[in-house]
Amino acid sequence: MAKKMKAKTKAKKHSKRTVKTGTKRKVDPVVTEIVRNGVIAVTEEMKTNLMRTAYNIIIYEALDFTTGLFTPQGDTISIGIGLPMFIRGMAETVKAKIRHFGADNIRPGDIYVTNDSYLTGSHLNHVTLTLPIFHKGRLTAFSCCMAHWLDIGGILGGMSTDIFSEGLQLPILKYQDRGVINQIVVDIIKQNVRLPSRAMGDLRAQVTAVKTGERRFLQLLDRYGRDAVLDSIAAIMDHAEAMARARTRTIPDGVYEAESYMDDDGIDIGKKVPIRVRVVVKGDEMTVDLSEVSKQVRGFYNSGITTGYACAQVAYKCITSPTDYPINDGSFRSLKTIVPPGRVISAVRPAPMRWWMTYPMTIVDTIFKALAPAIPGRVIAGHHADLLASSFHGINNRTSEFFIGSFGPLGGGWGAKMTEDGMSGTVCINDGDTHNSPNEQAEFKFPIVVERYALVPDSGGAGRRRGGLGVERVVRARTNIMVNNQSDRAHCLPWGLNGGLEGSGNAVELRIAGQWKTDFPNAKVLVAQLKPGDAFKIRSGGGGGYGSPLERPVEQVRNDVRQGYVTVKSAAELYGVVLDPETFEIDVAATERLRAARQSAGECPSDAKSA
Description:
Elements: E1 3-4, H1 29-53, H2 57-60, E2 65-70, E3 76-79, H3 86-101, E4 111-114, H4 117-120, E5 126-135, E6 138-148, E7 173-177, E8 180-181, H5 183-192, H6 196-224, H7 226-248, E9 254-262, E10 273-282, E11 285-289, H8 305-320, E12 335-338, H9 358-371, E13 391-395, E14 402-406, H10 439-445, E15 448-455, E16 471-477, E17 481-486, E18 507-512, E19 515-517, E20 524-530, E21 535-539, H11 554-562, H12 568-575, H13 588-601
Parallel strand pairs: 11-12
Antiparallel strand pairs: 1-9, 2-3, 2-6, 4-5, 4-7, 5-6, 7-8, 9-10, 10-11, 13-14, 13-17, 15-16, 16-21, 17-20, 18-19, 18-21
Helix pairs in contact: 1-6, 1-7, 3-8, 5-6, 6-7, 8-9
């Protein structure tokens, strides 16, 4: 339960306070705005070229990648809208490469590569390429691209318990040394992946992306002058800092705490993994303390410390500057994050990291939960908080070739706000701009058939503002396949706020020989052998509601029922609205009696809870 320990108004206290920013510099405001949009355009073109040249649908359809420009010190200038959780990992990877080689040993034509999980914060599938950008002999920036490789070796199914079983580990290496490709690195990668032609295709696509960043950024420097561009970038960061500080001052000073949990780590089934956060707001600065988040677990749900910092940054960005672009490090100068080593979001070697992305999004959710009493109009209720991205593999009976398949994020229900309903069928906060893959394309590439893909009625938490709906997908096997699903939050349901009710949880089911198996203890099925005709069902949870369901306008409830979002039964039981099951006409008298009785009794359904 979120609680506010103390709070006080800060308007008078800080009305004369000067904003702390970087060094004052004289810049042309017109050039600054051109540069602002220019660096955004550069990182977006990097994205476009990567998508056009990548070999795997997880990149060109699901968009599981991030591109970025960074200063010579490794600070973020702009990142292409992609994985929010990589807002910190890419910058720290660039800085690590600078430290590794030393500034004097970074040369034009170099391209550096790594997939070190404890550096990037994520799993080994995320391969990061970095290219130094030199302008007239001077290092002026870095171009960087992180992309998800469908296969990096290691085990495909089941639970991994250390990093060594999860695939090829690439320390910081030179993929290209002053324009010459390091063939040894290429050969090592080819030898360790199952589909080398596709891996090499994605590698070349990433090279295309970072070279695009180099070419376009140099054109910007040539056109407007190096000093003018670099000073404009510094001014943009200073402005981002000033705006973040100003919006932080609108949050009452105080200490705010909240807790939630993950279902389990996939090994100790049923043993909850605690998530506790503490947020301190003082003046124009915020501290997010993650010291009480669970210690690293035996299962593969850990992530590196850069992800711990990213949890705080994603939440802070949403609260203080969600629409300020480009995304850059100036926005986070007023944020402090406390992340001790050895937690699930700061794991140390050799902790497994294969499903690194699951826990962080619930941490972000819990930060919002903590701040709900202070800024109720700027946070959302709990959301489904999982990728629901099942993977499957086998031999394609049409081509007799080995395949690895995945749909990408399923999408689910987001929590309602004070002012609007939650979004339905939307990808979780961790993956932001990634997309769910088209069913038709998956059916064409893999021996499967999608039998059903639809919103789930009644999955959104009831409230004055209703939570978004979850989605279910039923997939039938056309050959023998092995299925793995690693989802969580089946039991820690998306909570409601201010009287809103919780949404449904995530779930997985299997259809074996025509019979559905639904009695799994969680949403994890790590190894499931399906024969032709068998199927798996993945269902994402709904978002939590906001405010009392009895306060939702009757006509809105009727529209929800007509559109199939809410059933007639739930309309009566949760919202106190009585409808004709055939015509959906409102029984006004019965509705008034039912709502009045429940309001006078202070009733709400016993199986629904609110934070």
